[in-house]
Amino acid sequence: VVAVVGGGLGAEAVLLAGVAAAIAGAISMAAGEYIATKSQEEVFEGEMELEREHLKYHREVERNELREMFGDMGLDAENTERVVQALDKDDEAMMRVMMALEFGVVETERRNPLAAMAMSGLLFLAGAMPSIVPFALVDSAGDGLLIAAILSGIALFGVGVLKTRATRTNPWRSGFENLLIAAGGGLIAYLVGSAFDVAV
After folding, report:
1. What is the pLDDT of residue 184?
2. What predicted TM-score, i.e. pTM, was given to this entire model?
3. Residues 103 and 47: beta-carbon distance below 8 Å
C-alpha cells in the first residue's frame, strides 16, 4: 500500500491494489501452510510407521535408545531403567515418548492441514485490513495512508506486546521493535514507489 501511494496513485487505485495484494497474499499463505503442514504430517506418519516396525522387530534397540536419551537428559541409570521398564509394558506410551524425544512432536500439538490453511489465510487477511480499509473511507491517498499508518502501527505494537505473553520479554520493547521494523519496511516501500513514479 505504501509503495503504491508513493507511486502517485489515487485512493481508489490504492484500494484496488491493496485488496488484490491481500487476496493474493492470503491464498499464497494458506496454500503454503497447507502444503507445509501436510508434508510435515506425512513425513511424521512415515517415521512413526518405521518406529512401529522397530518396536516390533528390534525392541531391544529401541529400549537402548530410550536409555541413552534419558541418560543424556541427566537421569541416573537406576531411574532410567525403571522408566524404560515401565514404558516397555505399554506400546502406545512408548511410542508417544519416542515421538516427543526422537522427533520433538507431542500428539496434542499436531496440526490439521486444513485448519492450519484456513487460519493462515484468515490471519493474513485480518492483518491486511488496517492498511486497506482507510482507502475505502477517504478520497485522498495521503489521508488514507496517514490513517492506515496509525491503525497498522497500533496493530503492530499490540501484536508485539501480546507476543511477550509467550516470550516473557519486555512488552514495550517488543511492541516498539515490531513498530520500528515495519516503519523501516514502509519507508523502503515508499521510496521504491516514489522512484518508480519518477522513472516511469
Report:
1. 95
2. 0.75
3. yes
